[in-house]
Amino acid sequence: MSITKTDTSTTAADAGKILDLRPVVSGVVALTLLVAALRLYEQLFGWSAGLDSFSPEFQIYWTNLLKAAIFFSIGGAAGLAGWLWRTRDRDLAKITPALELHRLLNLVQWLVIFSFALFWGLSFFSEQTAVWHMTAVRDTDFTPSNIVTFYISYPLFAIIGMGAFLYARTRLPSFAKGFSLAFLVLVVGVFMTIPNVGFNEWGHTSWSMDEGFAGPLHWGFVFFGWMSLAIFGVVLQILARVHKLLGQEMVDKLR
Fold first, then answer.
1. Between these two residues, 255 and 77, which has the higher pLDDT value?
2. Distance between CA 183 and CA 28 in Å, rounded?
């Protein structure tokens, strides 16, 4: 999109009016409350009902949670993708610079929430799972910690990442023209931690009972998890476009 001097001036004047922080605040608060609820649930029913997968209590508190997690993950992913596609902008060539800047800032908020979800999934709950399996003897692949980590927190950040990618593809000209390599590495890379769960559990069941967090069977999580660093490439692409929309004069004033 070509930016005229008038367009740039208008964009600079509107820049202070188009940033709405309510979505990111609401998203971070909702994510924090969900994590707190999951951790409290583990505290209440992990040891009391989660050590024997053949017990009726395990079926009530953990098997049902697993089924609900799978159902809501699939439904949530399909619903979010369908909504983003159905409400897509069908004429990106005509959006104003101010509207594009507004959408770029919305994308940044998506990425902030995505980053928090990655932390809770790949760091907090993943390390908790390692501690659980070095402490308790498992009699099933679907332990309380695994259910929360692999079937709730991992799908959650994958869905949020997918949403950010589709938002950019359907609403921003700079991301709709082609595929951003950084964005693809970010979204596809961290999503691949979910298929790696299957390999991990198969390995532990079949030939490697070692639960050491740095064991070779866990290297896949590290390989795919580190692809989250591609978020810096996405941010650089966003900043480059923001710079062009605002113009050099406005950028100098913001320094």
1. 77
2. 21
d(CA 247, CA 60) in angstroms, rounded, equals 59
Angle at 64 between CA 59 and CA 67, to 5 degrees: 130
Q: Report pLDDT digits (tens) over 96-110.
A: 888 999 999 999 999
Q: CA-to-CA distance for 70 and 109, rounded, in angstroms?
A: 26
Mean pLDDT of 193-218: 78
Q: Are 190 and 118 in contact (CB under 8 A)?
A: yes
Q: Tell me how far apart the alpha carbons of residues 11 and 96 are, in angstroms, rounded to a whole number.
A: 9
Length of the chain (residues): 255
What is the distance in angstroms between the CA of the first residue and the CA of the last residue of the chain?
25
Nearby residues of 112 by Cβ (< 8 Å), 6 or more positions away: 24, 27, 28
Residue ranges in the chain assigned as alpha helix (H): 5-14, 22-49, 56-58, 64-86, 97-118, 126-133, 144-148, 154-171, 173-176, 181-191, 193-206, 219-225, 231-246, 248-254
255 pLDDT exceeds 60? no
| Tokens 């580190």 belong to residue | 226
In single-letter form, the type of residue at position 124 comes to F
Both tokens of 86, joined, read: 């159905």
Residue at 18: amino acid letter: I
Q: Comparing C-alpha atoms, which of 128, 142, 144, 152 is closest to residue 46?
A: 144
> Would the pLDDT of 11 be above 70?
no
